[in-house]
Amino acid sequence: MRTGVIIAGGYSTRFGEEDKAVASLAGTPLIRRVADRMSGVIDSLVVNCRPEQTAALRTALDGYEHPITIAEDADCDEGPMSGIMTGLRAAETEYAFVAACDMPFLEPALIDRLFERAAGRDAAVPRVGDGWFQPTHAVYRASVMADACEAALAEGSHKIIDPLFTLDYVVLGEDEVREYATLDTFENINTPDEFARAAEQLR
Q1: For 115-173, how does the pLDDT look when each residue is reduced to its tens digit (9 = 90+)?
Q2: By the number of CB atoms within 10 A of the CB, which of 13, 17, 44, 114 ranks highest?
Q3: Of 68, 78, 66, 42, which Cα lies nearest the Cα of 154?
Q4: What span, in angstroms and rounded, lies between the C-alpha atoms of 63 and 44?
């Protein structure tokens, strides 16, 4: 069994007043597009968010084909590492795929491959381009990564990559990634202009 975890608790400051997680992208809420992209390779979904987002996110995900757990942040100002920790704590499977809420071009085949590569390890994470890790497009052993995030936060670290380096992880290099996906799978949307371009692609 596999869980998908979507991190949606950020403040979307570059996007404007609207919460981009539920903004309509070519007629569908952004978070619903992300959830739908991973639906064929997961069995349950966890969404991490701030408490005031819960109602709108539940509406956006209404009718989703898998069980959904909303994992609200206890402290909303701790950044994405805290969101990953909270989301993974709510996962009921050994492994979980973590994605940001603004990645509408996720490739299911690559997610499937990440689960395969993570088996027996603590994490499987892509690294592409100039060696950039993609920690919000990775599979983790949920309890182990959550503990690593908690330890990093306790030490005052907020760099999202730091907990990974304490784990037994495997890297999928760009050549392997490209066997399963284009690099669009990592594209995230931060501004209204990027949103408009993504909408054009989807049309």
Answers
A1: 999 999 999 999 998 888 999 999 999 999 999 999 999 999 888 899 999 999 999 99
A2: 114
A3: 78
A4: 13
Helix 80-89 and helix 142-154, axial crossing angle in degrees, nearest 10: 140
**pTM exceeds 0.85 for this model:** yes
* CA separation for the pair 165, 167 (Å, rounded): 5
Question: Rounded distance, CA 157 to CA 181, Å?
Answer: 32
Residues 6+ apart with CB under 8 A from 17: none
Which residue in the block uniquely carries the two structure tokens 């539920």?
22
Which of 193, 30, 165, 174 has the alpha carbon at shortest distance from 105?
30
169 three-class SS:
strand
Residue that has been written with the tokens 């919000």 in this structure: 136
Residues of the chain with pLDDT under 50: none
What confidence score (pLDDT) does residue 16 get? 67
Q: Which residues contact 15 (CB under 8 A, 6 or more apart)?
A: 23, 190, 191, 192, 195
Angle between helices 30-38 and 108-118 (to 10 degrees): 60
Residue tagged 């709108």 (tokens): 56
What pLDDT sits at residue 169? 97
Three-class SS state of 47: strand
pLDDT at 126: 97
Question: Which of 51, 181, 59, 195 is CA-nearest to residue 126?
Answer: 181
Q: How far is 5 from 90, CA to CA, in rounded Å?
A: 9
DSSP type of residue 43: S
